[in-house]
Amino acid sequence: MSWIAAADEATSADAAEAFERDRATLGYVANYTRLLARRPAVYDAWRGLNASIKASMDPRRYELATLAAARRLRSSYCSLAHGRVLVDHFGAEPEVRAITGGDGELAPVDAAVVRLAEKVAGGAAAMTPHDLAEVRGLGLDDDEILDVVLTAAARCFFSSVLDATGTEPDAAYRALEPELRASLTVGRPIADA
Question: What pLDDT was estimated at residue 106?
């Protein structure tokens, strides 16, 4: 599950609320919630930051950029979560296959967004203005480009926390179609239970 002892509902009222929120939305308590409920202020700040980034961005683009960054970081947890969202909510299985090296295809703008998110996650300090030229040339304005950068940079934080604490992807991801599950498991293995 994690190398850090999990919070439980007795940890705090905030932890109990987070657990109940997960049960209502997911049907179970996510392993990342069990970890971050130990620091409710950090968890709430993360949720707020993530919601702020998503609020001004096309939801599908957010998921594409997140998946690209998560894969670059080798975060199974985040790759599985956001790959599943793309498939379940956007019918984007061909796009997920394309991002994971399969036979799918990405539209030019989507491919450029994926490449930009990968660059941010792979080493933003080495980026130059040229790294923004492709998405700019395809019509993204500065606000849209900033949204992709913010998405990828935020994923660097969250994925790093999960991997640095050994937090395994939820066992629920075992229910994904086997080929999709295998393509999204790029780092830590899925939890057994």
Answer: 95
What is the token pair recorded at 138?
Answer: 């395809």
Question: At residue 185, what is the residue type?
Answer: T
For residue 190, being part of any structural domain is answered with no
Please indicate, yes or no, whether the overall pTM of this predicted structure exceeds 0.85.
yes
Burial of 133 (0-12, 13-18, 19+ CB in 10 A): exposed
**Per-residue pLDDT tens digits for 66-81:** 999 999 999 999 999 9
Same domain, residue pair 94 and 27: no
Of the chain, the end-to-end C-alpha distance in Å amounts to 8
Burial of residue 193 (number of CB atoms within 10 Å: 0-12, 13-18, 19+): exposed
Query: Are 33 and 84 part of one and the same domain?
Result: no
Structure tokens at 174: 């075992």
Residue 102 pLDDT class (50, 70, 90 cuts): confident
Find the domain containing 38 and state its range. 7-55
1, part of any domain? no
